[in-house]
Design brief:
81 residues; mainly alpha; 2 domains; 2 helices; 2 strands
Length: 81
Amino acid sequence: MTRARPVALTRGRSCVVVDQYTDDVVQAIDARTEGAGTRIMYALYPAKVGGLGMLALAAFASCALTWLATGGVWTCVRWGS
């Protein structure tokens, strides 16, 4: 059984995974031959981890949660008495 270091996301760059004990090439990833789906995910990667889009999503989610909690309390108060 060969032991290789885990490969992190290459984010569109080529990389080679080498067995640290035998110096054999375990896997070679060529960024130019990756599929369209992988390239699209690498292109969208910054949008998933931060930026204006993530801020807008967090603001919308917090407003939706506040609206849901307020509506629940309002329903309890209105129908409870």
